[in-house]
Here is the input.
Amino acid sequence: MSLNNSLGVNPEIIAIDAGGTMTDCIIVDSEGNFIDGKALTTPEDESISYMEAVRDTAGLWGLKPETLFPKVVSIVYSGTTALNALLMRRGKRVGLIITKGFEDYPLMERGLVWLGYSYYDRLHTTTHIHNPPLVSRDMVYGVSERINNLGDIIVPLNIDDVRYAAEELCRKKAEAIAIVFLYSYINPAHEERAKEIVMEVLNKYNVEIPVVTSNEVAPIMREYSRLNSTLIQAYASETTRLHMARIEVSSRKYGYKGRVYTMTAYGSLVSIDYPRFYETLVSGPVGGILGARYIGSILNLRNIVTSDMGGTSFDVGIIKEGIIPIVREPDIARFRLNLPAILLDSIPGGTGMVVRVDPITKRILLGPESAGSRVGVSFEFDQLTISDCDLILGYLNPDYFLGGKVMLNKEAATKAVAEVSELLEKDIYETAYGIVEILHSRCRDHIYSVLLGRGYNPLDFTLMVYGGGGPLHMWGFTENIPFKNIITFPFAAVFSAFGIATTDYAHRLHKSILAYFPPGDDEEMRAGSGIVINAAWEELENTAVSIMTKEGFDPDEIRFRRYLYIRYKGQLEDIEVLSPVDRIYDLEEDVNKVINAFEEAYLRIYPSAAKYPEAGYLILEVAVEAYIETPKPRISMYVESSREPPDKAFKGERDAYFNGKWHVTPLYEMGLLEAGNRINGPAIIEHPTTTLVIPPEHGIRFDRYRFIWYR
Amino acid sequence: MTRPIYPINLIKDLYIKRHKMPWDTVKKIMSSPKDLDRFKKWIRVLQEELGWEEKIVLPIHEHLFIVNKDNRLIVKGKCGYEYGDYRENWKLRCSIYVRKDEDSLNELWGELLSPDPHWTEFREYYCPGCGTLLDVENVPPGYPPIFEFLPDLEGFYKEWLDEEIEAENLSFEDKSMDLVDKWSKELESERE
Here is the structure.
């Protein structure tokens, strides 16, 4: 990161990661240099915090919005509006038309009453509860129709039922209508016909509201998550579009000429005209893993584990052979959705976590609540948090939190820890260290379970540490895990926003199909399945091209990645396979390539004894990712200077507590350390947005990109 | 700060507002460890809200409480109805409706959907004071009324609350059958 204040800079990309608490901003210039800044998020109108964050950041280059925006080529905004609308139940008044007999589905929710709960609460069934439904029961209408699992019409669509439902919903002043029928992903005829009838009725009454069918939004099997996806598209997505439009308007006011893009949960950019807007429901945490992949491509690292520690949660992601795994049925805001999303395993674990003691068992309980931007008792919160412990152990500088914008009260923190230590009858610093160690061991266990659960060995992976709390606790949560390398960054606190700036413009489309490669070489079956797969890919590619052309891209620039979801017949779960072929032309060679790719992926997870080719290979879903490469931030390279850090970077000493002892610990200023510098622990490196703690017997090295290698 | 502390007003709301409290608040209370003096606070709230002269010793049901009346521990309903000695199953003194034939079971499930009355019966226990349905038991015919909860009051007060409890009928033994014996003898003598 270079902080040159020259007025000759050419800002090119603005990337924003708006979280519940802070809005992070990164501005990248045409050289790839970037600067970062922050503002408090204003959930009621995000265009306000957006402008604040941009102003705060641009100021570092001496730019004002008037001089900044006309030069900017691309703006990427990843926000929380839709999620908030969903959480606060402030969406549209939705009406639902569904297959008769399934009217209570939004209430029954497949029995998933514990989604989003901690393990502790999952065990306590008394706390289990159904979501307040997105659509009230009196706005749900069942219609007679049935299509079976092969796409055949078993009961024809009762047109009168549909018309009656539409009339009633009009009368009840629905603000959006969702249509969800069983097996519409195989045969959408009934949904399409129902939509036509609903549109006729709406036109008759001169009502203009969105009508969403499930086959447009998520043509994927598993009707419950398809229902949720369709409802959320109707319920919350249009509101988000409105917020995004405001952000576009306020940018254009200052002379911006392009579009404002946002992020999907699977890590691609889309413009605000994108039809399946519900896919942008959560995207903030996804930025980090994309940034990690980008840095991996610079450093030539193919296997990466990412760890993001913020105030509330600890997210672990995996990049294997340069590929980011996708889940297709994630749980978001207590809803299970049909939505391809980047796989991030998240546990409560952050610097803002509340520390409590069970009065009976005297066990220390962490979280899951977080103090958020109120830090802890040392600032504006009324309960002890991890940050308070970090403070009294000497890791945090009370006068340099957020670069000195926030003063921390060490006395209050000491008093709060003393209360716990009295109860436990232990030394106060030993107690604080123990609390921090609980957080560390929890995060360590989490990293282990994510890696080992997929059959991966930490020795093959490089760990990238980011998030505001990442560098602060890295030494603890990486202890004794034999990673190949551990890397963190001076800009760790805004890494997600950085990642957003590295994202390609892309759409990912999924389709359920029925294809089967039997064991042996049954030519006829192979040919039939090949036709089905090729046709599905072609359909998805055409849809993607038509969407992207409408968005103003040159169809010749669009490139594709194709995916197959394969399982041995009879299994319940499948595995995502990046297709090694564009189309299945040769029934011998191409099919074998696909099967080999699957078995290779399968053997990475299961032992070879679990292979079962005798069952044949079943493919129930395919996907296409259509992407266009966008300009990315460039990472500056520096000439490596001496191993000794420069004198100007040394800013004093402080006592810090490690392993039962106080150590005199030298302090450095992150921004003044140079490429090539090495520092041995104990040492603490401070930065306005984060603190890097190095315990005794460990050390760090700044490489030529000024990335920080920890050992 | 590190121990959960619940203001008395919040505990009071648990009683007064009941199902109308915001779910987030209720969930938080359910998932957190209890405060050490919760029992005493709860008794204080109940005592205030019910306005009884007798001291409440232990709540055993939404509607039922063990109270100390004239140095005897008895079960008392929210409506004021007194059930008698706490060591006797309060169900014995309820108004009871038993569904043990097809007609009465069909009222609930409809024809052909009801359980077989040869195998099972349903006993509905109502408070004689106010008619509140207190419990429903589903047992084989002839099974004695289930005594849900006989507390070891002496042990509970001593070991958990560090207090002594005094009453003339304090003991940890089930007296229900004594009551049934007494009643059957009375019946016999009436018949004679």
Summary: The mean pLDDT of chain B is 91.
